[in-house]
Amino acid sequence: MKKTGKFITIEGTDGSGKSTQIELLKDYFNEINKEAVFVREPGSTEIGEKIRSLILDTKNTAMTDETEALLYAACRIQLVKEVILPSLEEGKIVVCDRYVDSSIAYQGFGRGLGQEKIESINSFAIEKCMPDITLFFNLPPEKGILRKNNQKKLDRIELEGLSFHNKVYNGYLSLAASNKDRIKSIDASLPVEQVFLDVKNIIDAMR
Ligand code: TYD
Question: pLDDT tens for residues 183-195?
Fold first, then answer.
């Protein structure tokens, strides 16, 4: 079946303020009576949530980078088939907190597995289901990590050092530079309300 809905993904380094903006976007869609399905990666399906705990568990220090990349991809295809594609086929808007760009940035650049390998694993996993638009919350990691440290107990990925998160950030910058039509870069260092104005402008323009 043809997908007629709109697929929006949200990306950024840890602590870039995605979660706050996603909550504001939910409220906005409610206000304008737009039905939208909100999901997050890794997770959002019963099987995906189990894979999520496995990936993010701080006890799993022996996990290889390749295992990590494959688990994220496994989690993704479960979500694509169970929720994303069916919703898009019904003409709904789907907003996904992180998607394949996260794997390219974190596993490809951060872990150093390379963009090509991650793209090839994921071409199998996502069956050509690419976002129509991606909002990239652009915030240098040293600022993001500070925000996270103040918020909660850090998971296995967040516990990685600043040099890892800098590689991830560079991955995002490179993806944004080579996918200018799809990836909209938003300055996430601005105050929350101002950041959301940018989000709203981009979302309104795509309707
Ligand atoms: P989460 O608590 O959802 O973080 P955030 O609120 O920043 O999205 O944890 C998800 C973590 O998994 C986050 O550190 C990014 C990482 N991740 C990858 O490394 N690769 C991926 O493909 C995805 C989807 C996430």
Answer: 999 999 999 999 9
- CB atoms under 10 Å from CB of 178, counted, come to 10
Q: Peptide bond preceding 140: is omega within 30 degrees of 0, i.e. cis? A: no
Q: What's the number of domains the chain is made of?
A: 1
Domain that holds residue 42: 6-205
Q: Is 42 in the pocket of ligand 1 (CB under 6 A)?
A: yes
The pLDDT score that the predictor gives to residue 29 is: 96
The torsion angles phi and psi of 97, rounded to 5 degrees, stand at: -75, 100
Q: Is residue 1 part of a domain?
A: no
User: Is 105 a domain residue?
Assistant: yes
Flag whether 38 is in a domain.
Answer: yes
Q: Which residues of the chain have pLDDT under 50?
A: none
**Mutation probe of ligand 1 site: the residue of 70, 72, 102 with most atoms within 8 A of C-beta:** 102
Residue among 39, 126, 157 to mutate when testing ligand 1 (max atoms within 8 A of CB): 157
Taking residue 2's Cβ as centre, other Cβ atoms within 10 Å add up to 6
Share of the chain above pLDDT 70, in %: 97
101 close to ligand 1 (CB < 6 Angstrom): no
CATH of the domain at 126: 3.40.50.300
Ligand 1: atom nearest CA of 12 is 7
Rg (CA), the chain: 16
Cβ of 12 below 6 Å from ligand 1: no
